[in-house]
Structure prediction request, 118 residues.
Amino acid sequence: MPACHAGGRGFESRPVRTNPNLWRSQPPRVFLFLDMTYHVYILQSLSNGSYYIGYTKDLNKRFLQHNKAKTGYSAKKIPWELVYSESFDDKTEAILRERFIKAQKSRDFIRKLIAHEI
Prediction:
């Protein structure tokens, strides 16, 4: 097998040696890459302008659930519009961010967040 870098020094100039029995002794490894993203989101009711703040792993599914709700807070204020979201790699970070936004208890804070002024 030809070298990757002609005239190189070290491993890159050596031919690759493979063991033809490698696949017989070990099955190939399979890696599953799962979406580990969590989302903090803000919905706004198109019926009365109120906001809903939450977090989820599947933003599309959760949005549909809010708009199809038959009971609870979401049902009373349908239809909802997604006005803001943030993504996090860690569930704990998403929960802390959701709690922080809710703790502000301020429509003005939420409006500024949505407008990217904060």
Observations:
- Strands lie at 38-45, 51-56, 80-88.
- DSSP finds five helices and three strands in the chain.
- The CA atoms of residues 46 and 88 lie 27 Å apart.
